[in-house]
Amino acid sequence: MGDTRTEDDVLAAIERRRRRPHFKLMDEHITLSHGAGGKASRALLEALIVRELGNPVLAPLGDHAQLPPAGDLPLALTTDASVVAPIFFPGGDIGELAVNGAVNDLAMGGARPLYLSTSLILEEGLAVADLRRVVQSMAAAARAAGVVIAAGDTKVVERGKADGLYITTTGVGVIEHGRRLGPAQIRPGDRVLLSGTVGDHGMAIMLARGGLELEAALESDTAPLHELAQLLLTASEHVRCMRDPTRGGVATVLNELALAAEVAIVLDELSVPVRPEVTGACELLGIDPLYVANEGKLIAIVAPEDEQAALAALQSHPLGTSAAVVGEVRAEPPGMVVLETAFGGTRVVDMLAGDPLPRIC
Amino acid sequence: MGDTRTEDDVLAAIERRRRRPHFKLMDEHITLSHGAGGKASRALLEALIVRELGNPVLAPLGDHAQLPPAGDLPLALTTDASVVAPIFFPGGDIGELAVNGAVNDLAMGGARPLYLSTSLILEEGLAVADLRRVVQSMAAAARAAGVVIAAGDTKVVERGKADGLYITTTGVGVIEHGRRLGPAQIRPGDRVLLSGTVGDHGMAIMLARGGLELEAALESDTAPLHELAQLLLTASEHVRCMRDPTRGGVATVLNELALAAEVAIVLDELSVPVRPEVTGACELLGIDPLYVANEGKLIAIVAPEDEQAALAALQSHPLGTSAAVVGEVRAEPPGMVVLETAFGGTRVVDMLAGDPLPRIC
């Protein structure tokens, strides 16, 4: 019992082991053992996940991460399951998508993303090299967004039962502005801004799945939107609401806002930016780009007097160079989204029914 | 533009719609449409998930939940993927397990659980009635643990690709005690306490899978441990570390602690509480109950002078009636767990290798 070590000695030993893991990961493919909580799990954790994501908060590998006090600011919490197929696609992969997804959900409330947790559900047989690539991608996306991956869990399911891997990311942020944002702030007369082209992510995934006779060079737009959101909040005191039009696309988000605020939203078809390759692919598939998922775009509703300042703020950022004013809010008919078409007509843009593009994110 | 509604009017309208959803859920089985973000997704969300989990934080269904400031206390963050098969089993289901799993990971650090987020990955074809039962279970478990489910996400994958459903829960808590807990606090001479019988959860799942010629009435021990943990911290100022021995069981957790603290842990086989039905089932399967998952038990390492106070605290709670002192910490051999057997011998208890019980949690 003559143990004279101090707490610092023990912490130093823990840190040494983090750098020189006890357990080596020799396997080329994931097996059920990697999910069992024993030696193989430990090897996966030490030699791959913690090594790639490594940071002082995650490293102790306790039951939970301890985070510093957040003080008097409200917190924001969001969670995002990523089940995209395929897991690698032009412009990104499931790891980058999972991190950006949580970052963006925080950013849309004007929250500053601080911490992420991640749960990985791995399929038996997944190549360890593919997992490493995904985890490296998560680490890079977290660095780019300035968030720390603070906690994680890994499970393994039998071959055929997770299609490679599924990732859930949960984000914690702080809300530093004292604004009220949300559908309840929307008023008739407000302007609808969109930060860039629509449909890039969804169409890139469709092309990556193959089977289309199309040679378009389309990339996912997956990107963190926190800087764009901050620029917007700084430029305009009357930002009503921000949303990122992911699953269901611009049409679905605008319908949700129109329903929640009991207003009409009128979209001007000609002012919605769409890449020609996306238009082409959508026509081929019979899909309206307004329903196609985006992963690096935001919709902002702003007061009419701030329209130009807000647009200039978006356009000043590399992710907002194609930003445009795409519509406005009216009182009637409440709960509806109406498109003024290129041909001078109007049509109702309903919420998405069915699922033309399953597992897009 | 003559809109004279106040923000309160709009918020009231949002609340009215929460009570009388726009979208009805008529389906009996989950389809890919429920994951598409459109009408079917909205119906699932309004008429099932929010209705069952309903609370003012979750109800607005924005990109993220806004939580009140947490002040000067450190935060705790944990995440847990639940992939248990079958999803219903004696004593619980995947929903209860997912909530308790996150609550317990927070409780083991002495954190008070405040908020949970949840992501549901649903398989096409899942019965809506089964999903409702699972979500009701989550709501009940959250109420029992005093946590608010504040954020969520739902995705659907094709038939065969999620085995019913997978759930990830992420927990946020506050750490109100000023203690230092963790492996670095463990010292030779410390006592090892266990709050109850081992192996109940794992064996209940094995029996629920069928195929065993065994009629034992075994139930999962899934339960929230936050009260037990608080009692322990109040009774003893020298709690070194708490852990819940889930996947990999008591043997794996003790090995992790021995490795991290560079100490030996000596277990007394006779003092480890095991139900006779669990012993019987384990013998039949050739599995050591020390490696079998528990979902409502904790291991505490406490200073020798607090052994009796800590034990009394555990035994004072309904979840700790079978609590026992099961071992002690020694200086040598560092990183090892040694069992003193019922027959007076000793053997090394290594970390789990392979996976005798896949998808146990």
State the gist of this model:
The structure is a homodimer of 361-residue chains. Chain A has 361 residues and is an alpha+beta fold.
Secondary-structure map with pairings?
2 copies of one chain form a homodimer.
Chain A: H1 7-19, H2 39-53, E1 65-67, E2 75-82, E3 88-89, E4 92-93, H3 94-107, E5 111-123, H4 128-145, E6 148-157, E7 165-175, E8 191-194, H5 200-208, H6 226-235, E9 239-243, H7 249-261, E10 264-268, H8 276-285, E11 299-302, H9 307-315, E12 324-330, E13 337-340, E14 346-348
Task: Provide an overview of this structure.
The structure is a homodimer of 361-residue chains. Chain A has 361 residues and is of the alpha+beta class. In chain A, 31% of the residues lie in helices and 22% in strands. The first copy, chain A, has 9 helices and 14 strands. At the A-B interface, helix 1, helix 2, strand 1, strand 2 and helix 3 of A face helix 1, helix 2, strand 1, strand 2 and helix 3 of B. Strand 1 of chain A pairs antiparallel with strand 2 of chain B, so a sheet runs across the interface.
Name the descriptors.
homodimer, 361 residues, alpha+beta, 60s Ribosomal Protein L30, Chain: A, Phosphoribosyl-aminoimidazole Synthetase, Chain A, domain 2, 2 domains, 9 helices, 14 strands
Task: State the end-to-end CA separation of chain A.
Answer: 55 Å
- Supply the CATH superfamily name of the largest domain in chain A: PurM-like C-terminal domain
Q: Tell me the domain tally of chain A.
A: 2
Give the C-level CATH assignment of the largest domain in chain A: Alpha Beta
Which structural class fits the helix and strand makeup of chain A? alpha+beta
Number of helices of chain A: 9
| Mean pLDDT over the residues of chain A | 90
Might you state the CATH topology name of the largest domain in chain A? Phosphoribosyl-aminoimidazole Synthetase, Chain A, domain 2
Shape type of chain A: globular
Query: Are there runs of chain A of 5+ residues with pLDDT below 50, and where?
Result: none
Percent range of helical residues of chain A: 25-40%
What is the subunit arrangement here?
homodimer
Number of strands of chain A: 14
Any idea what the radius of gyration of chain A is?
Answer: 23 Å
- Could you spell the SSE succession of chain A in H and E letters? HHEEEEHEHEEEHHEHEHEHEEE
Q: How are the strands of the biggest sheet of chain A laid out side by side? A: 9-11-8-12-10-13-14
